[in-house]
Amino acid sequence: MTPPTRVLIVDDSSTIRNLIRRRLDGDPRIIVVGEASDPFDAREKIKSLSPDVLTLDVEMPRMNGLEFLERLMRLRPMPVVMISTETHRGSAAAIEALALGAIECIGKPAADRLPEGFLHLADLLVVAARARVREPGPRTIASPPGDFRWNGRFVLIGSSTGGVDALETVLKGFPQDCPPTLITQHMPEGFLASFAQRLAPRIAPKLSLAADGAPLLPGQVYLAPGGESHLVMTAGDPPRCQLVSGPKRSGHRPSVDMLFESASPLAARCVAVILTGMGRDGADGMAVLRAGGARTFAQDEATSVVFGMPRVALEIGAAERAVPLSRIAGEILGLAGKDAAVRERTLR
């Protein structure tokens, strides 16, 4: 029998600590081993209590959560789930936390919605405790080819837990004139806007939050804006982005399944990829695309923070094969370029 996941709650607000504890105490998969009100208290309790995973507030006195996270990942890497307000400042900090190695970041409930807060936190912590913590240091990243020529295939990417780092790795391997690319990343609306602002200046193509009716053009990367809408792709000349209001699908809004299934009329002109993430969103939609002639693959287990979504896609035959993260950009460009032998270069 799997032992309970040991959780340390780190937050300067006693109200939030109590709310998190109440959410977790009734779950037999979890034991709350302690609470800390600031990073200095947390440091001592990590040493004495040996938790499997932390919940960590971004904004705290004496030392903010980002500074503590950076030190923790350098000295004692371990799974961390960040808790942040969904203000612009809080969302930007959340994205920075994910880039520093946090497994996931969730929004802190507003004062008038405290009873609804942290409903799915227990599930997330159980998965996070067993996630692959990214080691700090240099990584292998694909170098964009200088002679890419688009062959008319569109690229669709779905990602979740661990996706901030994975998407940056993939997109840094894209040339300025990359194939039109649509991305659904599981994340709250405010976090997605901050993610787009952080990522856009770091890559060669133009990246933006998808706008309703935007044409799918080479050199453009479109990120689902989330909120009340899903991002889907419409057939046309050219095909376009469409934002569709609706309930959650596969437990998410935006949903990868919604994006993938919407592209089925153009399946033979698509390359679909599932990156790291918990759950199974995207697997069924990818199966539809593959049956229609799309080329499909998933991130491999060794490089996934959470091998949930990719595992399901591979198990049901939706993904043709598993590919290491460092090779995914090259695989995409090889399938979406006129030269099928696009060469992947890496920086080591």
UniProtKB/TrEMBL annotation:
InterPro entries: CheB-like, CheB_C, CheY-like_superfamily, Sig_transdc_resp-reg_Me-estase, Sig_transdc_resp-reg_receiver. GO terms for molecular function: phosphorelay response regulator activity; protein-glutamate methylesterase activity; protein-glutamine glutaminase activity. One of its GO terms (biological process) is chemotaxis. One of its GO terms (cellular component) is cytoplasm. It catalyses: L-glutaminyl-[protein] + H2O = L-glutamyl-[protein] + NH4(+); [protein]-L-glutamate 5-O-methyl ester + H2O = L-glutamyl-[protein] + methanol + H(+). Keywords: Chemotaxis, Cytoplasm, Hydrolase, Phosphoprotein. Pfam families: CheB_methylest, Response_reg. The active site is at S160, H186, D281. It comes from the Bacteria. PROSITE patterns: CHEB (PS50122), RESPONSE_REGULATORY (PS50110). The modification 4-aspartylphosphate is found at D57. Residues 6-123 form the Response regulatory domain. Residues 145-339 form the CheB-type methylesterase domain. The keyword S-adenosyl-L-methionine does not apply. SUPFAM superfamilies: CheY-like, Methylesterase CheB, C-terminal domain. Its EC number is 3.1.1.61, 3.5.1.44. It is found in: Cytoplasm. Phosphorylated by CheA. Phosphorylation of the N-terminal regulatory domain activates the methylesterase activity. Contains a C-terminal catalytic domain, and an N-terminal region which modulates catalytic activity. Belongs to the CheB family. Involved in chemotaxis. Part of a chemotaxis signal transduction system that modulates chemotaxis in response to various stimuli. Catalyzes the demethylation of specific methylglutamate residues introduced into the chemoreceptors (methyl-accepting chemotaxis proteins or MCP) by CheR. Also mediates the irreversible deamidation of specific glutamine residues to glutamic acid. NCBIfam families: PRK00742.1. This is Protein-glutamate methylesterase/protein-glutamine glutaminase. It comes from Frigidibacter mobilis.
